[in-house]
Amino acid sequence: MRLLHLKKTTDKKMKTIEKPSFPKLYAMVLVLMIVLSLLGAQYYLVREKNKINNEDRRYFDDKITDLSAVLDELAINPYENYDMRCLEARWIMAQLCIGDSHAYAEIYLKDKKLFDSYDALSCVFGLDRSAEGSWFPYNYYLADVSYLEPIREYVEAGNFYDIETIYINKETHLFVPGWVRILTSPYTLEAEQIARINCTPEDMQGYTISFSQFKFLWLSEKIFDEKDENMNKVYYSSLNPETGIYDINTESYPYEGLDETEWSIRYTDYHERSVSELFPIMRWKATGIALLIGLVASIVIALIIYFRKKAVYSVFEYRKKTTEAMAHDLKTPLATISAYAESLEEGLLKEESDSSENPENGNKNAEYAKKIRENVNEMNDMVEGILQFSKSEGGGGKILSKETDISELVNKCVDKYRDLFTQKEITVSLSGDTPSRKTDPKLFCQAIENLLSNCARYADERSEVKVVLSEKTITISNRYSGEIKNLSELKKPFVKGESSRSNKGSGLGLSIADNDLQLLGYKLDLTFENSLFSAIVVLG
To answer: What's the rounded Cα separation, in Å, for the pair 388 and 197?
Structure first.
């Protein structure tokens, strides 16, 4: 069972950080953003559709309620203001199509049909207003939609119309049109006229031309919409035999008890319109805008994600190369230590047997011990450098600034490394002066020592190291006969001036110095010209 568990564990693939590909990333983000944008556009259109339908539904129901109130008055006292009440009901009936142009209704008083929606079309003129402010006593309704047939194609093409002359019938409160203007926008003084059509019918019996100025005008562009005569609801009033009170109820149509009603409104219930009906053009505009937004947003988001992934991948690659460099640098002294330790062990085993015969063995053992010590010291320096770099990269704790004599501090650092320079027959010269300033002496000294250590390690033998102090800079220069092809990267950890790693050293000195100086608010610049390498500390 344990072996099976181990097998299952090893079968799992480890997650790796891959180099980001912008085209692939952009394609994924583009698909996602287009889908989200289209969903957003659809959500907006559906929300607006529901909003309009809800408002129109309330308006429609309110008009049905208003009609019922008028019919109640007619039923209670049919001989008082009968004609006026009928005109009021007719006006309310005409308003039903504002919310639903396909609405159709029939009004009955007991079993007598008063009128239907064709008697109250949404093309109305008001010639005056009553003292109470009502229009309906002076309203005239289009006698039949067929009279406007000559302008149908213009209206259905999205144009508007204005009736210049009307012929009215004062008994029926109906009118027929005369001349009609076709406009590109709703009627205003600036509206452009594109046609003028004569719609005057041949049979004008009962109609006379009206010379009165129109005080009210309602011309619906939905006048040609077909009425849905499939009535499915009835709103009625009937006597409750138990209470003796007339109740108002709503039932599905047809309803068997209509013969016993005082009045009834038989109608087609409000028809909710779809997005395509409400926004035939706007929905395509919204889709186009959504696609454009998705395209732009996908570019921005893809770039942000790409550069973030690229930064993560760069850090990953950098850490990977750093680890490989560390492994290489640590492997070399370890291999040397192992070889010398093995030789030393063999020498110790033979020491007693042939020490008298070959006295040079003692000298060889001493040499081996010396090599082991040197390699151990090199590894110790490398580990110490890694620790210093880690501290400098992470901030190194709290910076303790105090007034520091920079010239004296640099002089002490140079004295500390004089013996090391002497071993390579390198001379050191110190000139100039830098004023005292507030800084962390320990951190600043560590940076200068790492720069001097770099000189001691890489400067040509029997050359000169120059340390020049000035008011705002400290320049440490040395001769180096090799090649430096990656000067800009020397401040990175584990990077050396040559691709070959034969030179001793961890490649951390300049990185530590750079990090320390940045923490102190200073800057480290590097130059290499004519075999002269210079590290310049800019104090600001």
So the answer is: 96
Specify the pLDDT at position 388: 55
Report the distance separating Cα 478 and Cα 470, nearest Å.
18
The residue length of the chain stands at 540
Q: Residue 7 has what pLDDT? A: 42
Average pLDDT over residues 186-202: 83
Determine phi and psi for 450, rounding to 5 degrees.
-65, -35
CA gap 36, 44 in Å, rounded: 12
Quote the CA–CA distance of 399 and 201 in Å, as a whole number.
101
pLDDT at 323 over 70: no
Question: b/e string for 388-411 if b means 16 or more Cβ within 10 A?
Answer: bbebbeeebeeeeeeebebbebbe
Alpha-carbon distance 465 to 447, whole Å? 17
What tokens does 7 get?
Answer: 């097998």
163 pLDDT higher than 80: yes
Tell whether the torsion through CA atoms of 401, 402, 407 and 410 is positive or negative: negative
Nearest CA to 451 out of 403, 489, 508 is that of 508
Q: Give the mean pLDDT of 206-211.
A: 86
Longest dimension (CA), the chain: 154
Tokens matching residue 21 = 């590909």
DSSP calls for 497-530: SSS---S-S-S-HHHHHHHHHHHTT-EEEEEEET
| Cβ within 8 Å of residue 278, ≥6 positions away | 48, 49, 52
Residue of 360, 335, 334, 338 whose CA lies nearest to 347: 360
pTM of the model: 0.56
Residue whose pair of structure tokens reads 């609405």 in the numeric block: 103
163/147 Cα distance (integer angstroms)? 12
Neighbours of 522 (CB within 10 A): 20
- Amino acid identity for residue 266 in this structure: R
Give strand pairing partners of 473. Answer: 538
Return the number of other C-beta atoms located less than 10 Å from residue 12's C-beta: 7
Assess whether pLDDT exceeds 50 at residue 419.
yes
Partners of residue 245 on adjacent β-strands: 240
- Cα distances (Å, whole numbers) of residue 152 to 100, 156, 221, 284: 19, 6, 10, 26
Highest mean pLDDT among 4-13, 133-142, 359-368: 133-142
d(CA 388, CA 506): 12
d(CA 389, CA 322): 13
Q: Is the peptide bond before 254 cis (omega within 30 degrees of 0)?
A: yes
Q: Which residue has the tokens 């030393």?
A: 344
Which is more confident, 436 or 216? 436
Asked if residues 527 and 536 have their Cβ atoms less than 8 Å apart, the reply is yes
Quickly list DSSP for 430-477.
Answer: EEE----EEE-HHHHHHHHHHHHHHHHHHSPTT-EEEEEE-SSEEEEE
Rg (CA), the chain: 50
Backbone torsion region of residue 286, taken as left when φ is above 0, otherwise alpha when ψ lies between -120 and 50, otherwise beta: alpha
